[in-house]
Specification:
By secondary structure, the protein is mostly helical. The chain has 11 helices and no strands. The longest helix is centred in the N-terminal third of the chain and has 34 residues.
């Protein structure tokens, strides 16, 4: 029987009780380590030049790689919380960097390229709208392709929502296998996850109105809830996950 969203949230609160500090610290450090370079770049780089634009895109992509690696570390912590009452050290936030970074980056790239592919029709129609003498026709086509792009982006996000949990539990799977595994697990569960994501809109608004300060509480709660969702969907036996200590000894 599938667990309801309120129960998943209750389980998340239970597993986080008295242990918010580690996830908050992991999130705060990851945010600082990725936002500081971004801020420095914003104030020092001239993006009006071609070289500046390329550097901006390249650095942004690299920072997204780092954010994804940190995300895997945070997922690793949440899964350990869900499976054991034993304390988890903050150092586990570096889990993704300990011999797993290449797998995570390749998985992220295969995931990200799917978004780019579905962006092509909209970009093409928008370019035609701006450059041709038939702006109305291509404007309509741009709107239609934009709606199509958003719908497909949502589908992709739901199809592959579990890849960065699976990479923790299935260290022997290749990036393409991880994407396929996530797609299989999400069959019949996309609506549940979409509803669960929408249920957090109020909390995200609270974080926005608090100038981001509330996010240090909201983020651990949402991340833990998504970990509970993953465990509810993936009830089959898993491979022995690689721990931070295992990775360091490889």
């Amino acid at each position: 029987m599938k667990t309801s969203s309120p129960q998943l949230k209750a389980d998340a609160r239970g597993h986080l009780a008295g242990r918010y500090g580690v996830v908050i610290t992991a999130y705060m450090l990851a945010t600082l380590l990725t936002n500081i370079p971004s801020l420095i770049l914003t104030y020092t780089l001239n993006t009006n030049t071609l070289a500046g634009s390329f550097i901006d895109v390249g650095v942004t992509l690299i920072l997204n790689f780092f954010l994804t690696i940190f995300l895997v570390g945070q997922n690793h912590i949440c899964l350990r919380y869900a499976r054991s009452s034993e304390p988890v050290p903050v150092s586990e936030m570096w889990y993704g960097f300990k011999g797993r970074a290449d797998e995570i980056i390749i998985t992220f790239f295969l995931y990200f390229i799917r978004f780019l592919l579905y962006s092509v029709p909209f970009i093409a129609m928008l370019a035609c709208c701006l450059l041709t003498k038939s702006p109305v026709l291509f404007g309509v086509l741009a709107v239609i392709s934009f709606i199509f792009m958003i719908v497909m982006w949502i589908r992709i996000e739901l199809d592959y929502a579990l890849i960065f949990f699976l990479i923790v539990d299935y260290p022997k799977e290749t990036p393409s296998q991880l994407l396929k595994h996530s797609r299989e697990l999400m069959q019949g569960n996309k609506g549940r996850l979409f509803y669960l994501q929408l249920s957090f809109i109020g909390m995200y608004l609270l974080a926005l109105f608090s100038l981001g300060l509330a996010m240090f509480w909201v983020y651990p709660y949402t991340r833990m809830t998504f970990a509970e969702f993953y465990l509810d969907v993936n009830r089959s036996p898993v491979e022995t996950p690689i721990t931070g200590e295992d990775v360091e000894s490889k």
